[in-house]
Amino acid sequence: NILKESERIVDFNERKQTIIARLKGIKNLPAMPKVIHEVTELIQKETTDTVTLARVLGKDQALTARILSVANSPLYGLQRKVSSIEFAILVLGLDEIYRLVMALSIASAFGKVAVPGFDYDEYWKHSLIVGTGSKDIARRLGFVEIATDAFVAGMLHDLGTQLIASYYRNEYNQIAARIADQSFVPIVTEQEVMQADHQEVGSCLAEIWNLPAELCDAILFHHHPSEFKGQSLLPAVIHLTDYLTSYHKTGAFRWDNGYVFDRNVIEMLSFSGEAEFNEFSADYAEVFKDSLAEL
After folding, report:
1. Residue 249 carries which DSSP code?
2. Other residues' Cβ atoms within 10 Å of the Cβ of residue 62
3. Between the CA of residue 253 and those of 3, 59, 275, what are the distances in Å?
4. Are the C-beta atoms of residues 121 and 171 closer than 8 Å to each other?
5. How far are the Cα atoms of 72, 149, 155 from residue 292, in angstroms, in the given order?
């Protein structure tokens, strides 16, 4: 049975500690990436300079490459090309660099998952498009104050999907087998098979890692932003971006097949009506296609 939305949230609150206990029982579950702690400590020191921070980040060449790749993507919105990590720090500032490090290091914390039916490269591209796209959409809609947080939440919105593929292998195999038949909607199938979905699993891991509450909420409600009773617009922004990648068939990440759009988002994000929303949405068909081609 598919739970009604209000029942789903109540049901999650009753099951939350069970999900967290199961996650904590995974012996090889990664800890919060070490680089996040290192960068946090540096930023908290008033004496930290660009060279010192760049030296720490430069120890992880893969992370440095990802930071520069994202910073130079059209959707991220910088007006100049960033060619070095030192210049990225100068242009973006410490706070935004911290968020970039957090999003990119956590998104790759599980490594490249070698699981039949889970395409890690498509997952990574999807995460990048939703991350950079959410930042761009937040900015275009006038929510500049949450634009950088929207990037982080967009990058991590499907964290639970990778977690299920990596550590809930039996359940994952059952889910993957069912959604091979496209009449099965992945998020509904997750609930049927494991009495939890990727939103819930991802949000619980984010809580275990002591990530900010607004980020945990954005992960938990990105398919159902109407159910979020807080003030933040992050769940609605992430939902819109995630939906548009599905609507415009951006990439081949099949875990969003059958994506259901929460139409309350039109009002939540202050569109004047369907016509303005449709025109705004249409703009992203080519934008997402071009951004995907550059990844």
Report:
1. T
2. 10
3. 25, 31, 28
4. no
5. 13, 21, 14
* Beta strand extents in 102-249 (DSSP E only): none
Q: Cβ(131)–Cβ(73) under 8 Å?
A: no
Helix (H) or strand (E) holding 13: helix 5-24
| Arithmetic mean of pLDDT, 162-175 | 94
Q: State if pTM tops 0.85.
A: yes
Report d(CA 289, CA 72) in Å as an integer: 16
User: Chain centroid to CA 270: how far?
Assistant: 23
Helix H or strand E segment including 270: none
Which residues, other chains included, contact 55 with Cβ-Cβ below 8 Å and sequence gap of 6+? Answer: none
Q: Are 259 and 243 in contact (CB under 8 A)?
A: yes
Q: How far apart are CA 178 and CA 186, in angstroms?
A: 8
Mean pLDDT computed over every residue of the chain: 92
What 8-state DSSP symbol labels residue 158?
T
Cα–Cα distance measured from residue 64 to residue 101, given in angstroms and rounded to the nearest whole number: 9
Q: What does the block give as tokens for 71?
A: 């910073």
The single residue listed with the structure tokens 């946090």 is 40
Q: Are 179 and 189 in contact (CB under 8 A)?
A: yes
How many separate helices (H) and strands (E) can be counted in the chain? 17, 0
Bridge partners for 115 per DSSP: 118
Write the single-letter amino acid at 283.
D
Q: Strand locations in 71-170, DSSP E? A: none
pLDDT in tens, 202-248: 999 999 999 999 999 999 999 999 999 999 999 999 999 999 999 99
Q: Supply 277's token pair.
A: 């929303």
User: Which residue type is seen at 99?
Assistant: R
Residue 118, classed as helix, strand or coil, is strand
Query: Cα separations (Å) of 143 from 138, 148, 174?
Result: 5, 10, 40
Rounded Cα distance, 67 and 62, in Å: 9
